[in-house]
Amino acid sequence: MPETAPRTPQRGEDLVVMATEGDRRAFAKLVRREKDRLVMAARAITGNLHDGEDCAQDAFVSAWHGLPGLKDPRRFRAWLMTILTREALKRRRRPGPRLLTTDPGWIEARESPEHERLSALVSEMERLPEKYRLLLSLHYLAELSYAEVAVAAGLTEKRVKSRLHDARKMLERRLDRE
Amino acid sequence: MSERNDDRLPGDLKAAYGRELPGAEFEDNVLAKIEEGAGGEHEFAVPAMRGWRWWPLAVAAAVVLLLFGAYQVIDRDQVEEDLCRLPFVAAAPAETELQTIIVNLSVSGETTVKGENLDDRKLREYLLQRAKECRADPEHPREPVVLIRAEKDTEWKQVQRIMQLCASAELKIHKIQFASKIVEAPEPAPAPAEESDEPFSGPGTPEVPPAPAKPLSDEPFVSPVKVQGHLIRLARTWRETKTTVHLDDRILGSGKEGFAALERALSGTKLKSAQLEAYPHVPHAEVVRAIDALMKVGIRDIRFVGVPPPEQRPPVSDSMEPFSVHLEVRGGKLFLGFGAGGATKEFEPGLAELSKALQSWPANQAKPRVFLTGAVYLDRKFGDRVIAVLKKHGFSKITMIE
User: Fold this and answer.
1) Burial readout B328-352 (b: 16 or more C-beta within 10 A, e: otherwise)
2) Candidates A31, A107, A122; nearest CB to B30
3) Where are the alpha helices (DSSP H) in chain A?
4) Contact in structure between B250 and A103 (CB atoms under 8 Å)
5) How many alpha carbons lie under 13 Å from residue A149 in its C-beta half-sphere?
6) Out of B34, B221, B253, closest to residue A97 by CB
7) CA–CA separation, B292 vs B287, rounded Å?
8) ipTM tops the 0.90 cut
9) Which residue of B65, B82, B237, B261 shows the fewest CB atoms closer than 10 Å?
10) Residue A136 has pLDDT above 90, yes or no
11) Crossing angle of helices B24-37/A49-66, nearest 10°?
12) Is the Cβ–Cβ distance between A87 and A134 less than 8 Å?
């Protein structure tokens, strides 16, 4: 679970401090560390492969410019995800054609049961209410703790736990019906 | 799925959303965006050379860089400028009026302009002459662009030949039209940058009057012209490393996957016409691949439109002489010098002198890139103070070379 995932918080904080002072190499290291989680979460929130990557990039750029305003380096990840969430929701709500995440070209081994299962999961994620999809993305893909999700989503920790529970149940129910 | 639990859900979600995660280019793009957005903050050009003992080498390297112009290698803008020189580029500044030059191309590969049959050499001369006239017109300067009108069964390689010819004359291809049966919707949208949508009328078609360039929306896939048939867009901005392939109202994917999806999607189509739009940064080979895919399924009426990029690149500003500031340690003290052949002074008076010199920089003269060399990293605060002074006076493009 995210809480037990191996991390090196001290080093991460050091990098944040160095980046805040204008050290671009330190920031590049932060990008390298966080990009996969950020991109996965952004893909899930936007429901679009390319928008996900784009808004992850934009989130990093905004973070770089906003770093001097970050008071507590330990909250960097939650803060970064707040930026990402805002950007991703903005893109998702923007009118225009979108690449469905169930595009068969995205998930390989199209004929396999695994592919069907994952396609169904992505499809149901798309159909979930935004508030649920957002929390599932932040918790499972961005690997934020409950407390960090609470910061990123602007909710209390208790509400985050409750909503995540509801989100999981809804997802399971819908997948069972498939 | 009822057995799904907390342990399985994260794994499944990651499997579903974690395919083809971006590689190192992602960081490059982020840093490039930062560089652009921040108006070019300092960058670390030679990160491996740390420690003040290296400064003599660094000075030598800086001199070589300055003398031979090798600094352009690290200038992303310059790289983008090179990328722009593709034969099918059609991006003209939005405020520049376009002058279309029509080149008619027959099945046998013969070219005709204004009813006159021209071989490749004469055609190139003619294009150069027309381009010169358009651009040099003191009262009404225009940007010349070329419309290639090919007969229906003309081989693609003949079109490529003309494209290359135009490129050699530094002319942009505005549109390639494969003859006869192009049908417009009853109420076409306002004409895009080009003007002549009437059917191909054979050799001798007169030149059409210029039309103002149309600024494109930043939103994806807004077709400038309605056509009966498929609408394909190859989208790629200067920041992106892959081309995104659009078909009609769908995004098929990017890179090889996008083109493979396009070929799959087109197989079995019964439509016989298509409009292909390509951003200027789409590689030539990818345009050819898209056209090949269309022709393979029998689509011969292809309108090719080069589309201006949705975002303007920052102007290239490194063509001027760079300015250098140098830090060095002597006898346990830090010295600063600047400009060509400028003497070094101790850091504090040197910095004050630098500030004074920058203050008197002519207001009408552009600010060049500044190379900050020498003992830049000896103590970061010294380098930062120099950078602060440079930025205060509007010198925002700074490269640090230790």
Assistant:
1) beeeeebbbbbeeebebbebeebbe
2) A31
3) 9-20, 24-46, 49-66, 76-93, 113-127, 130-136, 146-153, 157-177
4) no
5) 27
6) B221
7) 9
8) no
9) B82
10) yes
11) 50
12) no
Q: What is the pLDDT of residue A25?
A: 85
Inter-chain contact B13–A168, Cβ cutoff 8 Å?
A: no
Phi and psi torsions of A86, nearest 5°: -60, -45
Are B89 and B172 in contact, with CB atoms under 8 Å apart? Answer: yes
Chain length of chain A: 178
Give the pLDDT score at B318: 38
At B52 the three-state DSSP class reads helix
Token pair listed for B330: 């002597």
Chain B nearest CA to A97, separation (Å): 6
Question: Which residues are paired to B79 by β-bridges?
Answer: none
> What is the C-alpha separation between A44 and A101, in angstroms, rounded?
8
The pLDDT value given to residue B59: 60
d(CA B307, CA B301): 19
Give, in order, the Cα–Cα distances in Å from A53 to each of A119, B78, B235.
20, 25, 15
Contact A105 B260 (CB under 8 A): yes
Instruction: State the average pLDDT over residues A90-116.
Output: 51
CA distance B292 to B294: 5
CA B112/CA B203 separation, integer angstroms:
6
- Torsion, Cα of B149, B155, B156, B159 (10° steps): -40
φ, ψ of residue B93 in degrees (nearest 5): -55, 140
Instruction: Please tell me the predicted confidence (pLDDT) of residue B95.
Output: 45
Two structure tokens written together for A28: 């590049």
Taking chain B (402 residues) in consecutive chunks of 10 residues, what is each chunk's mean pLDDT?
Answer: 58 81 78 61 32 50 46 30 28 53 84 85 85 77 76 72 73 61 31 35 36 31 46 72 81 85 84 73 74 77 56 38 72 75 77 85 73 64 80 76 52
Closest CA to B251 of A63, A143, A100, A45: A100
Cβ separation B253–A103 shorter than 8 A: yes
**Cβ contact, residue pair B38, A53, below 8 Å:** no
**DSSP secondary structure, B5-50, as one string:** -TTHHHHHHHHHH-TT---HHHHHHHHHHHHHHTTS--EES-TT--
One-character DSSP codes across B76-109: HHHHHHHHH--TT-----TTSBEEEEEEEE-TTS
Residue of B79, B96, B66, B69 whose CA lies nearest to B32: B79
pLDDT of residue B330: 72
Asked whether the predicted pLDDT for residue A163 surpasses 90, the reply is yes
User: Tokens 């190379």 correspond to what residue?
Assistant: B371
Check whether A161 has a pLDDT greater than 90: yes
Rounded to an integer, what distance in angstroms lies between the CA atom of residue A55 and that of residue A41? Answer: 10
Element (H, E) at B59: helix B55-68
Contact state of B21 with A141 under an 8 Å Cβ cutoff:
no
Six token digits for residue B1: 């799925």
Name B374's bridge partners.
B327
